[in-house]
## 1
Amino acid sequence: MTQRPFQRAKQTKISDLIMQELESMILDGTFKAGQKLPPERELAERFEVSRPSLREAIQKLAARGVVATKHGGGTYVSDQIGSSFTDPLQALLSSHDEFLYDQLEFRDALEGLSAYYAALRATDADKAMLTQRYEALLEANRQQDAQQESKLDAEFHMAIAECAHNVVLLHTLRSLFAILENSISANLSNLFEKKAARGQVMTQHKALYEAIMAGKPEEARAAVHSHLVFVEDHLLKMRREESRIQRSLRRSENANR
């Protein structure tokens, strides 16, 4: 029986390996949607490859719509990455208050999972980044700057998603970032009408931050749940108060007539 000649496995092209590495960096959030990639020379040095191989990898990514090269302006990650929730849907969800509770339930599920894995997996670099976001939020809270606070609140929660090291979870939350930011802004504006609420919300964020830093996943998940239950309870109470005020006004108008 004659033996078949040995056939060498087809070697992977260098440009394909570079492309895969860049894709991984986009997926794990190293390069975010709309962000400009480092210069060609810097990337070639980082990957220890030739510039022609790097250029070929970027061309392949551009052909797939993952990046876009602007003439004389560098290469950018597509701003469509993670935009699975379109603007019309965002507008619809944001303009109907009855869906606010659906958003809170969704956040409870996803962010609870995110906090759980962040407590398990956060690296020293992740913890340094999370500390930076937390301290910025703390400062905005001290200054009682509601607009800045809502922005930094959303960024704090997104930082936790990055610490979880689950790209599906990260991009699901990132695709909802605009809705999340609007939701947080609306929630804080309503909550902070009650003077005590601002301090209570920050105490909840502190508990969440400390649980992740201490590597306590169940405590981190419970902290997310407690925070969102607090928000939901207060919003429901405020709605009931609004409803009572509206009924009183209607009765008063009828009596005047």
## 2
Amino acid sequence: MKKAFIAGTLQFVGFSLCSRLLEEGVCVDGISNDYEDELEQRVAEEKLMMIGRNALFQSVESVPKEKEHDLIFCCIQDPADKESRIHENLLKECASLSLTHKIPLVLISSMEVYGENQLVIDKNTVPAPTTINGAAHLKQEQTLKKLFNQSGLLKIIRFPGLYGPWQPKSGSIHKRIVASLTGGSPVQDEREERRDLLYIEDAVNALIELSKLETFTGDTVHLSSGKENQWREAAMLLNEKKESGIACKVSEDIKYTVRSSVSLKEGLSAQTEWIRQNLYIFQSL
């Protein structure tokens, strides 16, 4: 891969993906989301300053028409968003670029397309989302599947829960760490994808591995830690007495086990230290 296009460059997954590709020497053109929330906009500006210094990165305002890229990534909706960020026109423009020039497209999706009570998942399980985020991801999947049909250019990668540096402010782990550092009020449990949990850098490495596969069959892949009770262990490490997490079984033929570069304890420590060093971003408004 010499050059990639990312829609949603400043999202949680999009930013980590962009940063990783730039480290590998891959040129990246990216479109960022529009943010109405003042804090989200501030965080996006911080991210843009970091990757904007890299000569391999270019922020663009529209999807190109010519064949300049080897891969297209759609990261508009993050795996654990609390709202719908669907940008249907942008999705269709990315699909058009892919189909016109036969460029593989990877859609970042979420296990939240399955409802909270769907705990045994195989290739025949029909998604029935129970959250705004899950419904948004499913709509994106359906929109692209209809456009791509049997072209073989589309791959959908569903992520479980994610944590690590730059986790969105809505993430419960982020909130709990901020509260512990600032003496704030304990965070109440929120509806969040709790079937599994991955460190952001490990998840993005797996995403890149999958995207480099020579054949795109249109299959949907589910990223997995390969471990049980990740959310429960995270809660204990964060000194949360209340157990959390959902036991779920995903069929082996649709699952991709992610290699871990850090333990859960190490990953949470890295996120805590990152927040400690960047508290000014979240306290400046």
